[in-house]
Structures are given as C-alpha cells and as structure tokens.
Design brief:
By secondary structure, this protein is an all-alpha fold. The protein has helices at 2-32, 34-52, 57-72, 75-102, 104-107, 116-123, 126-142, 146-168, 177-202, 213-247, 252-270, 272-294, 297-334, 337-346, 350-365, 369-389, 391-394, 397-422, 427-453, 459-480. It has one domain (2-487). Helix content is 85%, strand content 0%.
Length: 488
C-alpha cells in the first residue's frame, strides 16, 4: 500500500498543478469574456462533450485490458489493443461528425440561445482529437506509466491556456472572445494529438492489426452508456435549465449569467477534491484489475476500503473552507459575490461526488460496468426531476440539489455492490459521520476566527487566518480519531 500511496502522491502533485492551471484560466475567462459568454461556451461545450462521450468507454476498457494482459502475460493480445481501440473510436467519431453536418439546419433547435450554434461547430472536430489523446493516454495508464500519463495531461492544459490567452487577446488571430476561446481549444487539441502520437511511438508503442474488436466493444459499451447518459443529462440541463429560469421571470441574459456562475465558476471549484480522488483512481484502476486477475481479493478489499475513506476526507478538507468562506472566495477570484454564495450553498455536493467517483472507478476496474450504468440511470432521475420542478422555488440552485441527490443515490448503490462483490466493511459510515461532526466544528471555529480578524486586517488575511484555524482543527481531530492510519 505504501508504494501505491507514493505513486498517488506523485500523480496527485502533477494533477493538482494541472487543475490549478485550469482553475486560474477559468478565472481569467470569467473576467475576460464575462458570465454570459462563459455560459454560451459551457452550453456549446456540453453538446460537443455529449458527442465525444460515444467513445468514452473505450479508454478505460483499454487501460483495464492492458493491465490484465500484463498480469496474465498475454503479449499477443496486448499488442493489438491500441489499434483496435483507435479503429472503433475513429469510426464512431466519423459517423458523428458527418451526421452533425448533415443535420446542420436543425442543430440550432437544441440550443436555448442561437449564438451557441457557431461555437458548437468550431468545437466539433475535437471529438477526433479527444478520442486519439484519451486512447493513447489510457495505454500509458494500463502500462502503469503514470509519469507519462500525468505529464501529457499537464502539457495539454498548458498549451490550451497559452493558446487561449493569445487568441482571446487577438495576439495571433482576430476573433470574437468567445469564438477565440473555442478555437484555442481546438488548436491545442491538435497540437497535443501530434505530441501524443510521437511520445507513444518513442516509448515502444506499436499499432498492429486490429483484433478482438468485439470483446472491446462489449466491455466498453456499459461504460460508454454511463458517460453518454451522463453527458446527455448535462446537455439537457444546459438547454432546459436556462429555459426554466426564463419561465420564472429571468431575462435570457440573467438566466445565462446565473447558469454561467454556477456551472462555469462555482461547480468547477467544487470539483477540486474530485481531482485528488481522480489521482487515486488513476493508480488504483490498473492495480485493482491486476488483483482481480491474480485472485488477490484481500489486497483488493484493503485498497478499496482505504481509497473510499481517503476520498471522504479529501471532500471534508475542502468543505470546511468552502462553506464558511465561499462568498469571500468568489469575490477574490471572480469579483462576483453571487458566484461565491453558490460555492457555499453547493459545497455539500463534494461528499457524494467524491464517493461516486471513486466507487464508480473501482466497480469498472473489476468488470462491473453494467452496474455503474444502472446506478447512474437511477440517480439521474432525481437530477432531472429537480431541474424540472425546483427552479420556481430555488432558481438555479435546483441544479445543485439535483446533483447532490443524484450522486448520493449512485454512491449508496455503488457501495452496496462493492459490499456484495468483495465484502468491504461499513467503516466508511463512521468516516461520513466524522465528516459532518468534525467538519461542522472546524467550520464554526474557522468562521469565528475570520470574524475576529476581519475588523482589524484586510479580508484576504482574515480569510487565510480563518482557513488555517479550520484546517488545523480538522487535521487535529482527524489525528485523534486515528484517520492518519489509512495511509499507512
């Protein structure tokens, strides 16, 4: 386990740096193009993401099968996995690309604002680059080349930011700012695709004759179903929620601004602990696949239990900062107190989001993809119902409520399935209780400290003081409760 923890720390360090870059770039975007334009970009990107999701199950399947081939020393099958996966993915992308252009006269009907349509077509080619990049990175993942896996992600983010700044400010091209944002995304993806192909061949990658295509399709289809269904739900939200907000009296501009604040400013911040949990998943998926093939159920169970507890504690670390200080964070980062309030109000989402992420990855790694599809389908019923029923009562916050209910349901179902499959303990229940009790006390002390400091020092200093107090209290109580032991 110590080796895994060291690897997780390494992957997490790069991942956190990469996410921070993206986070600060999003702040830059919000300040440069504004909440309304950011809302247009988010809506357009959600539809492109929906199309890209048709191949989303292939990378995880490639990673798992690569790990299984290495564990069982099946060199012949391993050599054709990448070419088989790419063949399937690029065929699907071609069909989607051609279909989207054939349906061009009707595409505008799916957007609540017609300004989204040209942005959508600018972004559309990225379904090809996303397929190639994710496939090659997943081969590195299955080979346990975590350095390459993480560094290529970081380079991709850096290139996207650099090109974004240059194009948005019309330094190298002359486009409208929101169009420039989309174009920078496309150009950076093309450059990263070229880089990934070069790295793949330089590290011994081989593209042999495609083989075993049917098993890859069979294994990836449930995962694709989950991702596709999730993207479909997100796309529905992006088109329905602004319309629902308009129906309760908001103008189109106000509805887009509210949506942009929540989805473009607040929610990305709340995915911060998910980035840390994602690093755990990156390391554990090939490890879990290997344990399953080799029959090491005891080792698999230990890894699963520890990773669930760690994911809960990660969520709590951010929860105790975002709940009391969300509004101040919004002001400092975005100069937008409304976005800050959305951060505070939505912070509880991080707990079920984190648990869902790690348990879904673990179930996929032990070939339970169909279960994750079923569980998300059940959970999404609550999400869709929330955005249809609740906007007239709580406005855009209906999305936060729906996401919290959705991920809570899927997390519970995932945990019960892991209990059935590998007999994990119910220790995570006590960790969740600690999340609310220890976290609540830490929030109270942090808020108390900030209120004392804010009358005598600048807001930023008071915020830091309150945050240090909250984190110190939480880490101390974690130590006293014995949670330091989960990383041994």
């Amino acid at each position: 386990m110590k080796k895994i923890i060291k690897t997780v720390f390494f992957v997490t360090s790069i991942s956190v740096f990469t996410r921070l870059l993206g986070f600060f770039f999003r702040i830059y975007l919000s300040r440069t193009i504004g909440a309304e334009s950011l809302g247009l970009y988010q809506i357009s990107m959600s539809i492109v993401a929906l199309l890209a999701t048709f191949t989303a199950g292939l990378p995880l399947t490639l990673s798992r099968k690569t790990s299984e081939c290495i564990a069982s020393r099946d060199i012949k099958s391993n050599s054709s996995l990448v070419s088989s996966t790419l063949t399937i993915g690029l065929i699907v992308c071609t069909i989607l690309f051609v279909t989207a252009h054939l349906l061009e006269p009707y595409i505008g009907n799916i957007f609540s604002d017609q300004q989204c349509k040209p942005i959508f077509y600018i972004l559309l080619p990225t379904i090809f680059t996303t397929c190639i990049i994710s496939t090659i990175r997943s081969w590195f993942w299955g080979q346990k080349k975590f350095l390459v896996f993480s560094l290529t992600e970081m380079v991709e983010e850096i290139s996207r930011i650099v090109l974004g700044v240059l194009i948005i400010n019309q330094i190298i091209f002359s486009f409208e700012q929101v169009d420039g944002t989309a174009i920078s995304f496309v150009v950076s993806d093309v450059l990263c695709t070229i880089m990934m192909i070069i790295v793949f061949f330089s590290l011994g990658g081989v593209l042999s004759k495609p083989n075993d295509i049917k098993p890859i399709i069979s294994a990836s289809t449930p995962i694709t179903g989950v991702r596709l269904y999730s993207s479909l739900v997100q796309s529905l939200i992006a088109t329905i929620l602004p319309s629902m907000l308009i129906s309760i009296g908001l103008s189109s501009s106000e509805a887009l601004s509210d949506y942009g604040r929540l989805m473009g400013m607040a929610i990305p911040i709340l995915y911060a602990p998910a980035a840390l949990t994602g690093s755990i998943a990156v390391v554990l998926v090939p490890e879990a696949a290997s344990d399953r093939i080799s029959g090491n159920i005891k080792g698999l169970k230990d890894k699963v239990e520890r990773s669930i507890n760690v994911s809960i504690l990660f969520a709590c670390l951010f929860y105790i900062i975002f709940v009391p200080f969300g509004e101040q964070i919004g002001e400092i980062l975005y100069s937008d107190s409304v976005a800050g309030r959305y951060i505070s109000y939505s912070a509880i989402l991080m707990l079920p989001l984190n648990i869902n992420q790690i348990t879904t990855s673990l179930l996929n790694s032990i070939a339970e993809e169909k279960k994750t599809l079923l569980h998300y389908a059940i959970g999404s019923i609550f999400l869709i119902a929330s955005i249809l029923i609740l906007p007239k009562y709580v406005g855009v916050m209906s999305l936060t409520i729906g996401m919290t209910l959705c991920f809570s349901v899927t997390s519970i179902l995932n945990l019960l399935t892991l209990r059935k499959k590998i007999n994990i303990s119910f220790g995570y229940v006590f960790t969740i209780l600690f999340f609310f009790i220890g976290g609540g006390l830490s929030i109270y002390l942090g808020q108390f400290m900030m209120n004392i400091l804010i009358s005598v020092v600048p807001t930023l200093i008071a915020l830091i003081g309150g945050g240090v107090m909250a984190l110190t209290m939480f880490l101390l109580s974690s130590y006293l409760m014995g949670y330091y032991d989960i990383i041994k």
